[in-house]
Amino acid sequence: MKKDLLVMAIETSCDETAVAIVRNGREIVSNIVASQIESHKRFGGVVPEIASRHHVEQITIVLGEAINAAGISYGDLDAIVVTEGPGLVGALLIGVNAAKAIAFAHGIPLVSVHHIAGHIYANRLVKEMEFPLLALVVSGGHTELVYMKEHGHFEVIGETRDDAAGEAYDKVARVLNMPYPGGPHIDRLAHEGSDTLELPRAWLEEGSYDFSFSGLKSAVINTVHNAEQRGEVIAPENLAASFQASVVEVLVAKAVRAAKEYPVKQVLLAGGVAANKGLRAALTTAFAEMEEVELVIPPLNLCTDNAAMIAAAGSVLFEKGHRTGLDLNANPGLEISVYNDL
Ligand code: KG4
Ligand code: ZN
């Protein structure tokens, strides 16, 4: 019988200090997330220096909680996994150094992981992956369509040329005077309004799987300012509904087209914006008609940043032989294709 694989993962790329312990790449043993959102709210976004400081304060506590909740000790671990990048360099460094210290002190192998690989592997915590597959990644920093022919092999077939989807949500929310992060607020408001405003859809050139959201964001801001100048008020719920309709329509259409062009068995949704109710519903409807493709959507707590997803990705990379030296550094510009030759 094959021995169990028990890994601990640390994620500190942005504003969540997270530690998780996962068995055999799929079974969550403990999953602790300390969010800093309250501290960043009054600045309307994540302040990198504040994020780093919070990670320093939280990391030891969160590590202890994850170990206690799992009822294990460091000696039981087969590997320690950590997010290497992309993200805020000062934030990433806290996780990287904690992981290196644990690896060194306990003689455990160190495994570095790409943050977006983690978001994609959140799906494996709910459903075994079947290849080839396509992942629609929509987070605060990334909007990408990723084709995977096998475990650990990531080919980006389309990506945003400017703002990420989550970034556009957060910027539009600011215009509507909503707190950071704005995505969930716009999502809620969108369901109270209707798609009454004419906003653009950025389809880009024929056949392109790239995205662009900055034009849409500017259109929303201009619509609000023009109305203000005329002394009119646009119902915020209609603005939210119209903005969301534009984002969702483009994301769904490009994912469906890619799923028809590539020979995929599954389409996985990933990233913080995967929590969006409008997107989840529209994708579910669109893929209900494509019987040969299975749509997988992670539960809400695994869509936003967490360490269980990093552990899931790290477990697969570990089994493919990926090991990291104790000279590991944070790498804000890390490419997701780095594991393709494993
Ligand atoms: O993946 P994530 O936790 O962090 C990054 O890796 O960027 O994503 C955070 C993003 C934020 O922009 C947030 O506004 C967005 O996900 N988000 C949402 C929803 N929940 C979170 N966007 C739209 N609708 C939601 N329900
Ligand atoms: Zn993320």
Automatic annotation (TrEMBL):
It holds the Pfam family TsaD. InterPro entries: ATPase_NBD, Gcp-like_dom, KAE1/TsaD, Peptidase_M22_CS, TsaD. One of its GO terms (biological process) is tRNA threonylcarbamoyladenosine modification. Its EC number is 2.3.1.234. Binds 1 Fe(2+) ion per subunit. It catalyses: L-threonylcarbamoyladenylate + adenosine(37) in tRNA = N(6)-L-threonylcarbamoyladenosine(37) in tRNA + AMP + H(+). Substrate binds at residues 137-141, 170, 183, 187, 276. Its cofactor is Fe(2+). GO terms for cellular component: cytoplasm. Residues 27-311 form the Gcp-like domain. Fe cation binds at residues 115, 119, 305. It is found in: Cytoplasm. Keywords: Acyltransferase, Cytoplasm, Iron, Metal-binding, Transferase, tRNA processing. Its main location: cytoplasm. It comes from the Bacteria. One of its GO terms (molecular function) is iron ion binding. Belongs to the KAE1 / TsaD family. Required for the formation of a threonylcarbamoyl group on adenosine at position 37 (t(6)A37) in tRNAs that read codons beginning with adenine. Is involved in the transfer of the threonylcarbamoyl moiety of threonylcarbamoyl-AMP (TC-AMP) to the N6 group of A37, together with TsaE and TsaB. TsaD likely plays a direct catalytic role in this reaction. NCBIfam families: gcp_kae1 (TIGR00329), T6A_TsaD_YgjD (TIGR03723). This is tRNA N6-adenosine threonylcarbamoyltransferase. The gene is tsaD.
